[in-house]
Amino acid sequence: MIHVNAIRTFHPSTPKLNRTQKGLRVIKDLVKRLPPLKTNLSITIAATLIFTLVTPILGLAPKAEASGTVGTGVCQSTVGNAANVTVTQVGNDCLITFNASTTWTVPAGIGSAAVLVVGGGGGGGADGGSGGGGGELRHNSAQTITPGASVTITIGAGGAGGAWSSGISPPAANGSASSLSGAGMSFTAQGGRLGGGWTSTTGGAGGTGGTGGTGQNGGAGGGGPGNCSPSGALRFGQVGSDGPTSSIPSTPVNFGGGGGGGLGAQMNNQGSSATGSAGGAGGGGRGASYKTAGNGATSGVSGLSNSGGGGGGGSACDAHGPMNQGFDGVTQRTAGGAGGSGVAVIRYLAPPTITAVSISGTATIGSELRVASATTTGTLSSITHQWQSSANGSTDQYPELADGRD
């Protein structure tokens, strides 16, 4: 008595199933050929059932939702805290943005990724000060990573803006570094430098000196006005410098823009409104404005969160009225804006997907079995079908049939 088993496998042609899952056999449908019976036995294999049983073993099926799980389908990932992590699918890629410190587990089969890390922006100086510098950008478009390993992400905070209250002016603070480590990666992006206070005409320097990948300095903050304006005039500081650009998030985006310089307004609340010096592209905050939010001057604007932008400089001089009228630190001599927090972005090629297939026919010797073609998404460009058989009932050796390929 001879038992014949038939196995159907899929062998992806070039390009392979994905960059790292070399040699993966997506699904095996096993049909046991029975010896001739008195009546034909017709069997239709429910491919959806087989796919349900096989795909979890192969690691293709989505995991159940749980605390710390983000994304869906092929872009699902496990993180330590899902509250400030976003996942999107961009074409065939998964894009994960980390807006706060957490951990991330590299999905199975993922061995390469594009990585971007940005440090926090520096705070803007108070009292007519200069803008804070933008955070440094570190990146690698082809970083090797270890599947299944844990990665620790630390997002640097933006530096506090300088303050002014009753003649006391605490200085601004530098932005903090952002870092990403584990799974074969080590990146540190430095924070931007603080903006100076009164009479400072040099803006905070952009973050620099980090490690990992390629570094680009953050944009410098704009210098402050340096002095009060002549009576009846406005004196603005310089605009912040644009931060570096990255295409890892998909379309080119600036990060780490410098904050705009502050304002010297010897106006005694006279004259028309005017906006302060702009921050640089990449989230830099604008410097103090005049009469755009009521009487007097505003504070410097904070850098944009998760951009690494520097804070804008504050206002000085008699922007509301004589200094003895009690407006210091409110609408006359104002605070600088805080720097924007940093960010980390990881982008990798999504694993391809394959639809369930079906095999139907009469499972008797000499009869014909037919297979319905599967469809795929992702980078699996084509499928070939290869039948294998075993004439001795073996379950571990299946030579290919010479005429069983299509």
The averaged pLDDT comes out at 81
What's the Cα radius of gyration?
Answer: 31 Å
> Strands across the major sheet, in which order?
4-5-8-11-12-13
Number of contiguous helices: 1
Helix content: under 10%
Query: End-to-end span in angstroms?
Result: 30 Å
In the predicted model, the low-confidence regions spanning at least 5 consecutive residues are 1-66
- Going by helix content, strand content and strand pairing, the class is mainly beta
Number of strands: 26
Structure write-up:
With 406 residues, the protein is mainly beta. The protein is built from one helix and 26 strands. The strands form seven sheets. It has a six-stranded antiparallel beta sheet, with no helix packed on it. A six-stranded antiparallel beta sheet has the order 6-7-20-9-10-14, with no helix packed on it. It has a four-stranded antiparallel beta sheet with strand order 2-1-25-26, with no helix packed on it. Strand 4 (69-70) and strand 5 form a beta hairpin. The longest helix has 12 residues, at 47-58. It is elongated and about 105 Å long.
